[in-house]
Design brief:
Elements: H1 4-7, E1 32-38, H2 40-52, E2 59-63, H3 66-71, H4 74-88, E3 95-101, H5 104-107, H6 111-121, E4 126-132, H7 143-152, E5 165-168, H8 179-186, E6 192-193, H9 201-205, E7 212-215, H10 221-231, E8 235-237, H11 244-257, H12 266-283, E9 287-291, H13 298-308, E10 311-317, H14 325-334, E11 339-342, E12 359-361, H15 363-369, E13 373-375, H16 385-400
Parallel strand pairs: 1-2, 1-3, 3-4, 5-6, 5-7, 7-8, 9-10, 9-12, 10-11, 12-13
Length: about 400
C-alpha cells in the first residue's frame, strides 16, 4: 500500500470526477444583490450558474478590461455600477455583496477604502466585499470560509439575546424528523436560525440575537469565531457524526453550553443500534468504500462503520481537513489494511484496480469504481444525531438491493 503521506502530497497530473448532478447554490443574503467584478471570462461560470439556478435577478457582472486593470480605474466603476443598479432593481436591495475575483490578489484593492467610499455615496445601503479566488486553495483559510465569514459580517450587535441558536456552515436543513429539534424544545430552544432560510434582511439580522452558534461544517468556523468576538455569541463545533457515543457526547456538550441537563437517550440508542445491526446483517461481507464527497469526516465515518462490523475497504479523499486528523491517525495505526486513496490522482481513472462489487458511499468513489451499489449523499447534508445514523443505515440497506448502472 502506498504511504498516506505520499498519496496526499503528490504533485502531478490530476483527475476530477465529473459530478454533473452535484447540487450547487449561491452564498447570498436575503434581499441582497451580488455584484461580480471581473474580466468577462471569469464571470462566465457564475453567469451560467445563475441562469441554471433561476437566480439571474440576484446577480450582476461588472466586466473590467485590461486597460481598467492597468490604470486602476476599475474601483470607481464599482460605485458607478451600484448607482446604475439601484435605478433598475425592484425592489431595492438592502445590501450589495461585491465579489472580487482572483485577479484582485495581484491588484490589491483597498477594501476598507472602497467600502467607506460606497457607504458614503450610498448611506442607506450596506456593503461587504468577498474574494472568490481559486488560486488560494492551498492557503490556510479556504476561499469559501472567507466568503462565509464576510456574509455574517453585516450582522449588527443588538445587545440582547433570545432563546434561539444559529446553525452555521450548512447549506441544507437538518431533517425535520431528527430528534435534534425535540431535544432543543426540551431545552427551551424554539428558534433555530439558518442564513439560507431567512426570507428578509431583517430576519437575517435576528441571527445576532441568538445565544449559541452550532457549527456544522468547517466552512463556518471562521465566521463563528468572529461572531463570538464581535457579537458575543459563543460557538460549538458539532459536525454530523455516525458514532453513537460521539452523538451522545455532542448533546451533552450542547446541554452544558445552554445550562441544561442532557436527556435520557436510551430509546434513541436502542433504535439506532437495531438499525445498525439490521444493515450489517443485510449487507453481509460486501466491501464498503467511503469518500469525502459524502461526508466532511470520511475517516470518522469509516472508523464508525468498521467498529460496527462493516467491512470497510478504502477511503477516498481529496485532502485531509484538520477535523479528520485524529481519526486518520487512529485508522492508520489500528487498521493499516484500510487503504487511503486520493480521488484526484490520475490512476483513479482505471479505478485503482478495485472491484466494482462494493457499496460506495459518495459519488466520487462510486463513479471512479463504477460501483454496483451506491449511496448518494453529499457533505452530510440533512444528517444529524441518532436520526442521521439510522437514515444512513437505511440508505445502505436500500443500495444493497439495487444495482447502479453507469
Amino acid at each position: 500500500m502506498t504511504d498516506i503521506r505520499n498519496i496526499l502530497t503528490d504533485k502531478g497530473l490530476a483527475y476530477f470526477v465529473p459530478n454533473y448532478r452535484q447540487h450547487n447554490d449561491f452564498l447570498r443574503l436575503p434581499e441582497s444583490h451580488n455584484l461580480h467584478v471581473c474580466p468577462s471570462a471569469c464571470g462566465r461560470h457564475h453567469s451560467l450558474q445563475a441562469l441554471e439556478l433561476g437566480r439571474k435577478d440576484s446577480v450582476s457582472f461588472l466586466q473590467i478590461t485590461e486597460a481598467d486593470i492597468a490604470s486602476g480605474y476599475y474601483e470607481k466603476f464599482i460605485g458607478d455600477a451600484v448607482e446604475e443598479l439601484i435605478t433598475v432593481l425592484k425592489p431595492l436591495p438592502q445590501a450589495f455583496i461585491i465579489f472580487l475575483k482572483c485577479i484582485d490578489d495581484f491588484l490589491g484593492t483597498d477594501e476598507q477604502a472602497l467600502l467607506q467610499e460606497l457607504s458614503t455615496r450610498f448611506p442607506s445601503l450596506r456593503f461587504t466585499v468577498c474574494h472568490n479566488h481559486p488560486v488560494a486553495l492551498d492557503g490556510k483559510t479556504m476561499p469559501g470560509m472567507s466568503i462565509y465569514n464576510q456574509l455574517y459580517g453585516l450582522l449588527d450587535y443588538s445587545g440582547k439575546k433570545d432563546d434561539g441558536i444559529n446553525l452555521i456552515g450548512n447549506f441544507a436543513p437538518i431533517d425535520a424528523e431528527s430528534e435534534f429539534f425535540s431535544v432543543l424544545n426540551q431545552w427551551g430552544v424554539h428558534q433555530v436560525r439558518q442564513m439560507f432560510a431567512c426570507r428578509t434582511f431583517a430576519e437575517y439580522q435576528q441571527m445576532a440575537d441568538s445565544r449559541l452558534n452550532l457549527v456544522l461544517a468547517p466552512i463556518g468556523k471562521l465566521a463563528a469565531e468572529n461572531m463570538s468576538r464581535r457579537l458575543g455569541i459563543p460557538y460549538f463545533v458539532s459536525p454530523a457524526s455516525y458514532d453513537i457515543s460521539e452523538v451522545v457526547q455532542n448533546y451533552e456538550n450542547i446541554a452544558v453550553l445552554l445550562d441544561q441537563k442532557s436527556p435520557d437517550f436510551d430509546s434513541e440508542i436502542m433504535q439506532t443500534r437495531r438499525a445498525v445491526q439490521e444493515a450489517r446483517e443485510h449487507m453481509g461481507d460486501m466491501p464498503v468504500v467511503v469518500d469525502s464527497s459524502a461526508t466532511l469526516r470520511p475517516f470518522a465515518l469509516a472508523r464508525a462503520l468498521h467498529q460496527y462490523g462493516f467491512r470497510v475497504k478504502a477511503i477516498f479523499t481529496t485532502r485531509i481537513r484538520d477535523i479528520n486528523r485524529e481519526d486518520e491517525a487512529w485508522l492508520t495505526q489500528q487498521y493499516p489494511h484500510i487503504k487511503v486513496l486520493r480521488t484526484e490522482r490520475y490512476d483513479a481513472i482505471p479505478g485503482f484496480g478495485f472491484s466494482p462489487e462494493c457499496l460506495a458511499i459518495g459519488f466520487d468513489c462510486a463513479y471512479t469504481l463504477r460501483a454496483r451499489h451506491f449511496v448518494r449523499i453529499s457533505d452530510d447534508e440533512s444528517f444529524y444525531g441518532f436520526h442521521g445514523i439510522r437514515k444512513l443505515m437505511g440508505l445502505m440497506r436500500a443500495a444493497c438491493d439495487k444495482q447502479t448502472s453507469w
